[in-house]
Amino acid sequence: MSNPNAHLSTVVATEDQLLEGGWEMVVGLEVHVELATRTKLFSGSPNRFGDAPNSNIDPVTLGLPGALPVLNRTAVELAMRIGLALNCRIQPCIFHRKNYFYPDMPKAYQISQYDLPLNADGHLVLPSGTVVGVERAHLEEDTGKSTHVGGATGRIHGSDYSLIDFNRAGVPLVEIVSRPDIRTSEQAREYVAELRAILEAIGASDAKMEEGSMRVDANVSVHKPGTPFGTRCEIKNVNSIRALGRAIDYEARRQIDIIDTGGEIRQETRHWDDAQGRTHTLRTKEDADDYRYFPEPDLVRLEPSQDWIESVRTSLPALPAARRAALSALTGYDTRSEAIVVVVERGQHEYVHAVADAGGDPVRALVYVQQSFAEEGSVPQVPASDLAALTILERDGKVSATQAKQILAELVDNGGGDASAIAAAKGFEAMDTSAIESMVAEAIAADPDAWAKYCAGEEKAAGAIVGRVMKASKGKADGKVVAAIMQSRRSAG
Amino acid sequence: MAEQHSHITAADVAKVARLARLDIDGETVDHFTAQLSRVMDHFGDIDALDLDGVEPMTQPYPLVNVLRDDVEQPTLDTDEVLAAAPEAEDHRFRVPPIIGLEG
Amino acid sequence: MSQSASEIARRVRAGETTARTVIEDHLAVISRRDGEINAFNLVTGDSALEAADGIDARVARGEDPGPLAGVPVAIKDNLCTRGVPTTCSSRILEGWRPPYDATVVQRLRAAGAIMVGKTNLDEFAMGSSTENSAFGPTRNPIDVSRVPGGSSGGSAAAVASGMAPVSLGSDTGGSIRQPAALCGVVGVKPTYGLVSRLGLVAFASSLDQIGPFAGSVTDAALVLEVIAGHDPGDSTSIPQPAPSLVAEVGRGVAGLRIGRVVDLPGGAEPEVETRLEEAFAALAAAGAEIVDVRLPSFAYALTAYYLIAPAEASSNLARYDGVRYGMRVAAADTNAMYAATRAAGFGDEVKRRIMLGTYALSAGYYDAYYGKALKVRRLIADDFARAYSACDAILMPTSPVVAFPFGDKVDDPMSMYLCDIYTIPTNLAGHPAMSVPFGTGAHGMPVGIQVLAPTLAESTMFRVGGALEAAGRGA
Lengths: 493, 103, 475
Fold this sequence. Notes:
Largest sheet of chain A: 9 strands, mixed
Helix content of chain A: 25-40%
Number of strands of chain B: 3
Number of domains of chain A: 3
Distance between the termini of chain B: 29 Å
Shape of chain A: elongated
Structural class of chain A: alpha+beta
Number of helices of chain B: 3
Structural class of chain B: mainly alpha
Oligomer: heterotrimer
Number of helices of chain A: 16
Number of strands of chain A: 15
């Protein structure tokens, strides 16, 4: 069956991705990212969050008469990094003016890119393997910020007046527009999480949704497979990845309900209310301004040279996918495993490699870091060699898993330490195997019912036996050794 | 695509005045419509030209890649700027409720 | 007219006169005549005298204050002057003081020049007679019942009446050259990008250029040398230093080929046509070769301009919304505030052009109007390129008419727009052009002859202008 939507997206949902009733949801995401430059896109005022209102302003930022924009080289470089990381084509481009009136728009036009964006035709491969097309990633300037005073909710509706701060006006943004290739809310969340990880990895942005340095708008529509795409609605005010998933699911369901009851979807922009768990109308597209795009006469063509593009490409650090693959090769864990995903997300992958390089056991290193280094940041205080020593102690059976965990906690608290010394100080020593064998025998004698069930195949029954051994050994017995002894006794009959 | 050089109507003028945020009354709309219509009539002359394959010219002097370094420059004094504002409060520009606008 | 700028600077630097004396003399002329002529929106007498004293102190210390030491300059009121009201002759900016200087203003000051005031213009530089000013028209010093031209009417009149030896204007479709012609002074529009636009309140960004008015071609060259040259603060600024131009003025035209546009649209007053013929004859007598050239798309330039310029202007003037500076008319909500503020703050011509420009860019009309105009622009530029392969400079009238009486064209926008028919094409192409006074026409009013040259060929343009001026003095 030919795909009537192939010109927009060639992705077709699998059976298990369809919603109840046989509906296919179609999602495209527009992500605005604040670039990590020192200064604004078109002027030298600081690009800084949290300063006193209207302290980072200049004639360009305020749209004063006679002011002229000059393009920030670093913003272009970071935008190129984003384009390359998303497999885009970097092309000669120009800027356009997007004309509309709003109090936080100092010139009453936004300098953006229209039909000739810097980056085009890329894609993002999600950790789960799905490929989402990236239509474009272009440069544009951010607006100021308005706060609404007097209303009950702090929103425009019912406010008495508004106050405008132009610190954010002119901050460089890259707008990343995906193709409508996303078919589930889960994929949407994965896309945003992976995008964020990429942006952090390449140093383009700290991409924090909660702080507004990454903003996500979702375009959602529904249709029956084989039919043309439905009318889409744009959802704004999604402030976390979790909210994104909820909003998309809600919106798809809302649209399905309307169509099922004979209604039509009106193309509009809707506002996500996370507290109430629903979207509601912000404005319809008919009310939308005619933006009257035309080429920005105050700026000249941007044509990044091949040399520049290549130097950006070669200086790109390893992307999250590559980092996950490297950890996978090191440890044998799957790239999609939680341990690897979490450790790469935290930027602690290099540390794990360092521990392995220092002679540590790679798998234990990965697991220790995943479990205990949540607060550590990408450069943990614990020296890699110290952690390596601990992994070896556990691997060689000198301490049990439980004991290792306690030593680990101390290492983290103190920013390092000598694992052996700590073990000795705590009186930790792994029990030798024969001692454990005796304890297992005693535990079996004390609880013959549990042992009988375990021998009959009930794995859960092992817990009672193991518990007795751990109690008797005051936690010093290595749980894996206990399990091995029980298994071999069971096999032996 | 509309080739309506001969007539810019009062409705066009009213719509365009709204887009441009110019408050003009009915009588002025008519007056402007008459004037603009005469001006637009003259503009029909370019329809005689064959513009197939002609590249649009947006800038007279073809420069490329004019960039500046990402270095901080002095900013304007907040108080001075806000003193020149029509209305200010709490170090910010104050405006009446923002209704009926794209945002 | 007053002493020349070159002479003033020479004498101040040599200690033969003081800057204070110079300024006092010129302030006296202003005081005597500006009540009637209304060239100035604001006279900055006190700060001018203070600056003059500063120049004199430097001379006394043996320092050289620069090539324009002590020279009084009048600045068009659409150029930002720090701390000094810059109104663009509009109510919407009445009283607004910029927190920064335009680059050209900084460069003039660094060269020792002294600003004596801000001159009147058609509101936001939109007009050809200065009748569109919100603060009353400027009168032509030669016949006060007539317009001085526009939009830089105040700057032209200031020089023509001896209030300042030089002044700055801006030219988007002829706004320096046309008033120069109507007032009998020299006016220069440089190559687009030669002079920084930073601090020039934008009308049409791809067309606007700043340039000098002067009583002589040499003085105009002197000022242009000071204000021209690369500015990193303007992305459209050509990355070259200021050219040397004063030395070109007396070089003569022997061996140069001067183009006569045989398909030039007619309709100029007969005396203007006669002066043009005399100009060609004078240059031929001085050793130039006159060659025929064609500019087939020339007549379409007017339409292209009146689609492109208003389109850019509609966007450039959107920032005047009452939020951050300038006039605000209170209203119940922001949208109403915008509409009321802009309705009260802008005059009729500005409103007309904003609406015209908005229409030309609006959905469904872009290709038919703005898009087409950009292509016509390319045709015009190509025409010039072809013509300049056969000649070094082109001569034509600056204005089809001499200065006309007040009220003559104000009610018929199209007739006003036709005043710019000979000046507009060079703005579209981005080439330099200057107007040189050359005799008189009807009612004894001055006629200006326009010298056009290719991109960055200011040296050729000043050579031809200088020769015309010399011949005109003899005529």
